[in-house]
Structures are given as C-alpha cells and as structure tokens.
Design a protein that fits this description.
Largest interface: B-C, 44 and 42 residues
Number of strands of chain A: 0
Shape of chain A: elongated
Distance between the termini of chain A: 50 Å
Oligomer: homotetramer
Number of domains of chain A: 1
Helix content of chain A: over 70%
Radius of gyration of chain A: 21 Å
Order of helices and strands of chain A: HHHHHHHH
Structural class of chain A: mainly alpha
Number of helices of chain A: 8
C-alpha cells in the first residue's frame, strides 16, 4: 500500500477545516476594509484666514466622495451579510473552500482601492468599470464557494435543496443589475451609473418589498 | 401554494442571524478605529539643530490634539460598552437588526475623520457640529437597534421590561447633554463645548455618583 | 422601595460583563498596533541611477529603526501575554473592569506613536522618557486591573491567593528595570537606555533562568 | 519546600495558554497585513486634461505592482492556512509556544514592508533577497513551533506520528523551492525569480496533482 498519497490526502483534509478561523479572518478583513474606506476622505485644507463658511463649503465639496464611500460601505456590508449566510450553512470546511474564501477576501481588500479610484475619477468610465469588476469578482467568488461547497457536501444537507437555488438566484439578479447599471455609462454620464448602483445597493440594504427584485 | 415568497422570507430569516459574527466585526471596526485615532497625532518635525527643549515644546504643542484624541477614544469606548450591553441581551438576531448595527458601525468608522477634523479646526463651529452629528448618529442608531429589537422580539424577554426603559433613558440623557454642550458654541468659544463634551464623556467613563445624571 | 437606584445598579451589572468581547477588542487593538509598527519603516528612496549597493546601504541605514520597531513589538507581545494571563483568570467581568482594560488598550494604541517618536529622535531624552511613560502606563493599568479585580472578586478565587502576589511582583520588578534603564540617560547617551530596555524585554521574551529577575 | 520556584513555574504554566486568544491575534494580524498590501497600490495621478486612455494606461502600468501584491496575498494566505493547521492540532498551549507564534506573527507584519520594497525595486536583487528572507523567517518560525510543540507535548498525540513528518516535509520542500527560485537571480533577471516564486505559490494555492511537489 502506498502511504504517501494517503499522507497528502490527509494533509488536505486537515488544512483549512476550522470554520471559526475562517470567520475570524473574514471579520478582520471586512472591518479593516470598512474602516479604511473613510480614511480616504481627505481632510480639507484652509488658508490661515479661512472662515466658517470656507470650511462648510470644503465639507460640502466632499459630498460626491462621501456618496462613493457610503456606496462602498454598503457593498462591503452586503457581501459581509452574504458570506456570513453562506458560512452559517457550513457543516464543515476544507482546504479548497478556504482558498475560495481567501480569493473572495482578496476581492474585499481591493474595494478600498477601487473606491478611491472612483472617488478621484468619478467621471471616468475606466474607473467605473474597474469598480464594477471588483463587485463582479466578489459575486463570482461567493458563487464559486457556494457551488464548490455543494459539490463537496460541505453544507448542512437538510436545508440546501431549498436554499441553494435561492442564493444562486440572488447573486445572478444582483450581478445583472450591477452589470446593467454599469453598462448605462456607454450612453449616459458615469454619475448615472454610480447612482443606479447606489440604488441597487440601497435596495438590498433596506430590502423593500419590490417583488420583481426579490423573486429569488 | 406560492413558494417564492416563502423562499424569500426564508432567506431573510437566515441572513444576519449570527450574533458571534456581529460581535466579531464590531470588535474589529472598533479596534481599527481606536488605533487609527492616535495615528492622527502627527510626529513633530525639528530642524537639524533642534534641542531637547524644542522637542519638549513640540510635544506640548500636541496637547490640544491629545485632548481631542482622548475624547474620541472615550466616545468609542462608551459606545463599545453600550453596544456590547445591547448585543449581550440578544436572544437571536436577524437581517434587519444586522443592518442597523452596520449603520451604527458606519458611524464608528466616521469617528477618526470627525476627530481629525476637530483636531485640525478646533476653533471652527462647523467642525464641532460635524463631530456632534457623528455622536448623534451613534446614539440614534443604537436606539434604533434597541427599538427594532424590542418590536421584533430579538431580546431575552424576561429582562427587557425592566432594562429597555433604562437603556432608552440613558441614551436620551447622554444625547441631551451632548446637544447642550454643543449648543454652547453659539455663545462661547468652541473650546468650552469641547471641554463640556469631554466632561460628559468622563462622567460616563468613571460613572461617579451624580444622581441627576444617573436617574436612568 | 426606590426602584431607580435598582435600575442603575442593574445597568452597571449588565454593562461590560462579556469577557469574550473584551478579549476580542484586545486582540484587535494589539494586532492593528503590532502591524502598524512596521508601517513606520519608511521605504528607502534611490536616485534613478541607484545601484544594488545603494539599496543595500539604504536598508542597513534602517537598522536603528528596525531595532526600535522590534523593541516595540516585544513590548506589545509582553503586555499581550500579560493581559491574556489576567483575563484568563477572570470568573466574571464588570463595567469598571472593562473601562480599566480600555485605558490599558488606550496605552496600547499610543505605542505606535511613541515608537515613531523614538525612531525619529533616538538621541533625544524627551523621546526616550515619553516612550518609558507609555510602558509605565501599560504596567500601571495592568496592575490597576489586577487590584480592582481582586477587590471586586472578579477572579477565580481558588488560584488568586497564590497567583496575585506573583503577578504584582512581576509588574514591580519589570517596571523597576524599565525605570532604571531609562534613568541611565541622565548619565549616558540614550542608546544605552534603549539597549538596556531591549535587553530587559528580551529577558521577558525568552525567559532565561536568571534567578534574580525571576524571583517573582 | 521552596515556594518561589513553584510560583515561577506556575506563572509560566498560566501565561500564554489560551489558544483562542492566539487564534484571535493571528487572524487580526493576518487580516490587517492582507488589507494593507493593497493600500500600497498608489492611485494614478492624471493631468487636468487626462483622457480615458490615460487612466487606462496608468492602471495597466500598475500591472507589475499588482503581480507583487497578489504574490504577497498568496504568501500570507498559504502561511495562514499552514499556521491554522498547526494550531488546530494543539491540545494545549504554553508561554514558549505563544512566543514562537508571536515571532511568526512578527514575520507576518514585515510582509507589507517587503512587498512594497519589491514592488518599488523589482529589478534589484537586494529587494528580492529581503523578500525571500521574510518567507524564510515565516517558514522557520512555523517549523520551530512544530518542533517545540512536539517536544513539549502540546499536540493531540494520536495524530502527530503520522502528521508531523508530513508538515515538516511540506515546509522543507516549499522552502527549497523558494530558495532555488531566489537563487536564479544570480544568473537571470529578478523577474524570473519573482515569476518562479509566483508559480510555486500558485501551486500551493490550487494544489494541482504534480506528484513530485506533493510527495510530502
């Protein structure tokens, strides 16, 4: 009997099996990412003779930036809730699933960069598309985690036949809306796209009863 | 029987139900925020021929900044204790409650920005009001979490009839004191307001026996 | 019967009782602090025609800074182990104890500032004394937590009669060594003090068998 | 009977025994480190008349940096999985083991610095060697933890006779590959080494079935 392959199979069975550690590093990366977003808000600079009105106008001038940062906080919040829901359904984890989650977390760490890019270049379609690709990567890695987990029987079996199509459907609907919102930049100014993405996110945050968006 | 609404209700029942994850991301965001506060303390710069006395004076010059940072650390500490007390009373969580907490945590991530704004522009009423609005948002989202949690029966029922009015009263009293302290900037220089807010915070930290402030 | 004081006593009994949250925010603040230390290592800048030798010399020039950062990492590690030992002995927590720990964590968040100050001004006694005051505050708040916890019966009673004098003694010995090391800057250059503090820390890290330092 | 040595032995038995705290600070340091990596991606600057094409070219110009950051994220991910596997096998911890892990975590906090150094000086062998030394320190401290833990009987005994040689072998193979990849910089340009290290990391992430690399 060849023991080496058994050893190797064994290592892969041991590595990455700790769901608590996965939750721990996820909460850590999300919380650092969320806090760093607001750091991107540059403090206004005033001349020595600046007045209250100058500071007020400088803060108002941060408005568009604040919109982008709020957008990104909602994005991270939505995916934090989404990943948490998936992890909650796990009965066990393994090495491959942990790595799919690490790729998902890599996408999370890119959000502050994408946010600053969009906040500095809000009128550039390139910045908007980069932002959308980041959201797309978040959605695709979350979906990959779901699909792999199903195939590898990592989830609590009883609930999944009902739950899995729902989660898949949610990701497809949301990603379609993001794609449509982004595609409008081909015709309209980028602020239309940003506002549409903002509204899509807001819809998922407050979960209003618009049946067409929540059929899944 | 229409299964779609059932699916959807089901998703909302699953999402955001993990109190440990909520505690994890809260501790993460608070700890990053608290550590970043002190990063705002700019290192003094000295000329090549700087003396011990020069460095000493440069550090003393940081005094007002240190006051503002200590103030913000106390603010974050007070709200960390307050949120922890609320989360401790939870019997369960849900998606809406998690989002109310995420909005609360958004307000937490804004504190380093508000702090730096006030530290750089301590004589500007606009900076003071922005700081106060941040504290107001912290209090209001904490209150919203309490009220929603009561309505949605998320808390351990046995304790709440006695505890809920107490927590509500605490928030109202504290927020009234913050509002009064801030309003004094209409008549007095902003440093009076900052000092008053500092004293209010200190009162909640050391919890002295001043009956009028602790009736609730 | 007057119910108001009962309410208030009750709030103070509920607030800050969660040892897990206390451990969570402690690990968070320590880990952010430890990671930020190394961020203080400024990347070398080279001219366009820089050679391998230039970069090598630039990195060697970071040597003293690396020493200070290693020192601070050890400091944070020692106090992380020390606080962890104290929290491990808790049978329960309360609001006052949580606040003592928050003051301890405030001292932790100041360490990156003190470190950068000492790394930028290694020959200034003022920077050294500020660094020492930071270590003193860490030790004193840890001691205050121990003393308060004993008085308020927060610890597992069985172990404390034996353990408490040991922990107190450890803090006193260590703080005496730090004070002596710092005081040598009155006679010798500051690098002597920094090296002595480094050696004291190293002693606590590797725990060699020098009986005189480990009688307690 | 001499009680002092008993006291001291006792302190060392109590300190650093909490595996949860060790996991907590590890997740914290890894998550801050991983998030800070991407912060190193400097936002492009454009002139006032910059076009979509200019921004696109500026982002493409970040390509090599993105490669280095992805490399470092994989490095941290690999060692996070590796350390997690080791911690999962612990039956207990002690003070010495905690300190070995803290030295390992120190190496983790250095990764953002090494990454930025390599991203800024990708053609310098000195930067490459510094990066490799960082990976070497990560591997050696992980190995030291394993060896010490075996000697001090910290692991769940049943599994270790089979598992320990496997983990040791994995570290030796991986470190040999890193060393060979780095050594090629003596003959070839540094980008060859960087690409080789990248491929080695990718191999450990996706765990393909290349028998020669996975005999252990």
């Amino acid at each position: 009997m060849n023991r080496i392959p058994g050893y190797r199979r064994r290592f892969n069975e041991m590595a990455g099996t700790n769901i608590d550690r996965l939750a721990g590093i996820s909460d850590g990366i999300f919380s650092v990412g969320m806090t760093l977003l607001v750091l991107g808000l540059a403090l206004p600079t005033l001349s020595a003779h600046g007045t209250e009105g100058d500071l007020w106008r400088a803060l108002l001038g941060l408005g568009p930036n604040v919109l982008v940062y709020t957008l990104s906080f909602m994005t991270l919040g939505i995916f934090w809730v989404g990943q948490g829901t998936q992890l909650n359904l796990l009965a066990r984890s393994n090495r491959n699933y942990s790595w799919l989650q690490l790729v998902f977390l890599f996408a999370v760490t890119v959000v502050p960069f994408s946010t600053q890019l969009l906040a500095h270049f809000p009128t550039y379609r390139v910045a908007l598309v980069e932002y959308w690709l980041n959201i797309l990567l978040l959605g695709m890695t979350l979906l990959a985690g779901l699909q792999y987990g199903l195939r590898a029987h990592l989830f609590k079996e009883a609930e999944m036949p009902e739950v899995a199509p729902l989660m898949r459907g949610r990701i497809f609907i949301a990603q379609s809306l993001y794609a449509i919102a982004t595609a409008t930049c081909l015709v309209f100014p980028t602020w239309v796209s940003i506002t549409l993405i903002f509204l899509v996110q807001l819809n998922y945050v407050v979960a209003p009863r618009i049946p067409i968006l929540h059929r899944f």
